[in-house]
Amino acid sequence: MTERLYYNDSFLYTFRANVTDTQELKRDANQSTWAVKLDRTAFYPTSGGQPFDTGRLRTESKSGVPLEVSVEDVFEDDTGEVWHRISKVLPPGAEVSGLIDIERRRDHMQQHSGQHLLSAALIQLLNAKTVSFHLGEEISTIDIDVAAVSRDDLVRVERLSNEVIAENRPITVRYATRDEASRMGVRKLPEREGEIRLIDIKEFDLNACGGTHSQSTGQIGGLLIRRTEKVKQGLRVEFVCGLRAVKVARREFELLGEASALYPCAPGDLPANIGKQRDEARLVQKREARLLEELAELKAAQLIHETAGKPGAKVIVQNFEDRDANYVKLLAQKLTKGTTGVVALLASTQSAPALVFARSADLSSDMGTMLRELVTAAGGRGGGGKDFAQGGVPDPKQVQSVLEEAQGKLR
Ligand SMILES: [Zn+2]
After folding, report:
1. pLDDT digits over 114-136, tens only?
2. Long-range contact list for 148-155, CB < 8 A, 24+ apart?
3. Which of 103, 334, 376, 409 has the most other CB atoms within 10 Å of its CB?
4. For residue 229, how far is its CA from the centre of ligand 1 (angstroms)?
5. Where are the alpha helices (DSSP H) in 217-269?
6. How many A from CA of 107 to the centre of ligand 1?
7. What is the DSSP string of 98-133?
8. What is the pTM for the complete model shown?
């Protein structure tokens, strides 16, 4: 089995090793992907909610030209062996030096060690047990076995975690048998037998774990709890630690700055200002609806008055390029509800072309069938009842001919 160097030193970023085995993972038309096994490695393979390390492997080829490949994935196979996915194959037996991507490892250590703290604080303050952990690209989450946690309780948990970070307590690795570990009061024991690796946050938490961790709580840097979400097994808690927390805070500070510059106001006044503007917008909408109603009523009276034809047989045809479909519908209603002998063939081409056909109740023509036939023939959709129908056509240029055809059918 590969010796896992990160077990005893998660700050080991360079190491020497020998290639003990290779396998071809996949061969495309012109590219193969390879995996190599080493006798020892500092690369962490994806497991326990923590993603793999990336980095490089470097060797000397027979001709003396160094060969360097990037490590793109590190995974365990079914037998627990660690494999490093690389783009070019390295010969078995080759001596290599490995270089871990420090920034990624440090970030993973901050998030993962922070998770131990958070899980312990949740137990201590709320008796909420962690059932799973996921270290994501931007945000990490744990699922806890309670249905809900109040905002105040989350703040207490966050506060305790950050106090322990400020105390800079040592984080050490210990090994124990299952019985010993259980006597020590380990937070969550794994199912398997054999030696168990324990992560000890001095006088705060003791838990079984195979991941990479900081050497002291101070290195976690800080912990920020974000939103929570109900999930099947309880509650999902999002959190970020260390440099991620700074990055998130910076991004959100800048967003707040941009938003408050729009008003302009101090960031703290944003909620009140947004609430005020929303109330005003609602009033404006109500006022606009009232005005449109009045306008449609006046427009309807004007159109009936202007349209030639004897009372009882007026066909009003009009396309509105500067009014939306709602206004045209409203106008069609004003023209035909409570009137006699009026047919309205209206359209709006302000945005997507819309058509409305309507008639007074005393007439007998079938608006729904007529509109459906005409717009379907034009590649559009629509329909409705005998006295009121609406629909649309794909192209505004088709509106005029549809209106004319409808007018022709009525004659
Ligand atoms: Zn861990």
Report:
1. 999 999 999 999 999 999 999 99
2. 148/228, 148/230, 148/235, 149/228, 149/235, 149/237, 153/125, 153/126, 154/225, 154/228, 154/237, 155/225
3. 334
4. 23
5. 242-262
6. 13
7. EEE-HHHHHHHHHHHHHHHHHHHHHHHHH-PPEEEE
8. 0.77
